[in-house]
Amino acid sequence: MLFAVRDFKGAIPRLHPKLLPENFAQIARNTRLEDGALGPVRQTTNVHTFGSNVLSIYLDGSTWRGWATEVDVATAPIADDRIYYTGSGAPKMMVAGVEYALALPAPVSAPTVTNLATPNESLLETVYYAYTWVTGFGEESPPSPLSTALDTSADVTVRVNAFAATPAGRNITAKRIYRSQTTASGVTELFFVAEIPAATASYDHTLATAPLQEVIPSTDYDTPPAGLLGLTAMPNGMMAAFDGKEVYFSEPYQPHAWPIKYTLTVDHAIIGLAAFGSSLAILTSANPYIAQGTHPESMAMEKMDKSLPCLSRRGIVDVGYGALYPSGEGLAMISGQNAEIMSRNLFTREQWRALSPETFIAGHFDGRYAFTFTYSNFDIYDCGDASGFGAFVFDGGAAPASSLLGAAIFDFGSAISAFGDQRLGFIDISGQAPFFIDTDIVVPSAMHVDVSSGEFYMLENGTDVIRWEDPAAAFATQRWRSKTIVFPTPVNFGAFMVQTQGVVQGGNVFSAMVFADGALVETITSTNTPERLPGGFRATQWEVEIVSDTTVTGFALASSVHELLQL
């Protein structure tokens, strides 16, 4: 008679402890479970402290940026190092630590144009002039209003002046002058003439020395709406964001320009966006949408037939091949043209709703969906066991009259519904069977993955940025509780052994507890050697719980020491 575990898995809260698959857990806390062994996570390390509370964080090169609002940050699809963000008032960009409004408006007034000689009547044509602002970052504004019509000829110099005052605070360094010309097909367009310093008050244009060049590119470079949210970088230099029910796209490689002609409209309020491949998931308060295309003018949008409303914008995560987000049914994934619930086999609908998915703050780390959640109005999170056996008990008010066998009791002294207990959890979707892990090390209020290093950072207490799984930090104490193994008739295990990676030293935390029919029958503190268990009783339900800060590679319950030694 033998019960052994050598390939440790996480928890499946949906299932009763007796019905869990082999190697899965009732409780998996502070553990990695990356290679089959039961390895503890490391403690966190503080890497930065803000001077005041923030809600959003971003690592900009080697500098931490923080905002007191819910901000979405995207890097620039250009050669220079810049970041762009929405959610902190009107859309903004930051260059070398200096913040600028993203909007680059057109000049407010038309130029004045004057012939400096009498035009040749036989060569007379009617022309218009306009100009644009140009920033030190290479951005160009939409054109100014057109000048009044001017009858001139090619041999006459035209003076262009009376420009609008240069706006402050946008690093405008130049003006570009454009002149109209009607093509053979009858289309009139503006063509580039010259670029002059922003402070220059007048420009004299002679066609012989400054012939017309390329067509103006910025005619449709509309400024982004002030209410844009959810900024998301996409392939081919595009960026996307939303305002209400409308999705906006930037001109490729021109993050300051958001042509209205590219706008898409959905039929419900947009909660957030996530980009993967050439697709954009548009997550709303009802059905999600998918928009696909390689250029804003070719984006095709399709409404998905499943009503899976997104409950939290901060719970949306781009995992590269799809978008994960909290819906009312569970953790939803949009991938390709499909929408599915990834957590359906992990949580019942009631359990999922008890986690308060509308409060989720999430990130993506090592193939796992990391998220904060709330136990609100949910006193027992019991893995399906109504008795509370093997449960977490979050008790409010007076202490419980009697301790539930095998339960972890957290008595807060006030009703849990008054505040809700915040936790951090991970849903592993990297394998065939998803599982759940939680941790009591940190409860973050923001998360950030640095794409250049792959490091996972969290914000704690509103001011402290901490690094998750710092290789230099000490190991945390993990807790793992096995399924309930049930025998048809009462049995007695006579021996028990836990195998660890190396010898447990005096400074390590280690204990392994054996439960029989809900009662603790033995606790051992040694590893890699058989231990005898008490006799004189039999039980039909057996469990093992391990608390350790060292890696456990397996354990076994056997009828005898001899049977253990045969492993």
Q: What does this entry look like structurally?
A:
By secondary structure, the protein is mainly β. The chain is 2% helix and 43% strand. Strands 2, 40, 41, 43, 44 and 46 form a six-stranded antiparallel beta sheet that branches. Strands 1-47-42-45 form a four-stranded antiparallel beta sheet. Strand 27 and strand 28 (331-335) form a beta hairpin. The longest helix is centred in the middle third of the chain and has 6 residues, at 349-354. It is elongated.
Tags for this model:
mainly beta, six-stranded antiparallel sheet
Radius of gyration: 32 Å
Number of helices: 2
Describe the global form.
Answer: elongated
**Main sheet record:** 6 strands, antiparallel
Helix content: under 10%
Low-confidence stretches: 377-419
Q: What's this entry about, in short?
A:
With 567 residues, the protein is an all-beta fold.
List the helices and strands and how they pair.
Elements: E1 2-5, E2 25-29, E3 45-49, E4 56-60, E5 63-67, E6 72-75, E7 82-87, E8 89-95, E9 98-101, E10 112-115, E11 125-127, E12 129-135, E13 150-152, E14 158-161, E15 172-182, E16 188-197, E17 202-205, E18 229-233, E19 239-243, E20 246-249, E21 264-265, E22 270-276, E23 279-284, E24 289-292, E25 300-303, E26 317-318, E27 323-326, E28 331-335, E29 338-341, H1 349-354, E30 362-365, E31 368-375, E32 380-381, E33 392-395, E34 408-411, E35 421-428, E36 435-439, E37 446-449, E38 456-460, E39 464-467, E40 478-482, E41 485-491, E42 495-500, E43 510-516, E44 519-524, E45 531-532, E46 539-548, E47 552-558, H2 561-565
Parallel strand pairs: 33-34
Antiparallel strand pairs: 1-47, 2-40, 3-39, 4-5, 6-7, 7-8, 8-9, 10-14, 11-13, 12-15, 14-17, 15-16, 18-19, 19-20, 20-21, 22-23, 23-24, 24-25, 26-27, 27-28, 28-29, 30-31, 31-35, 32-33, 35-36, 37-38, 38-39, 40-46, 41-46, 42-45, 42-47, 43-44, 43-46
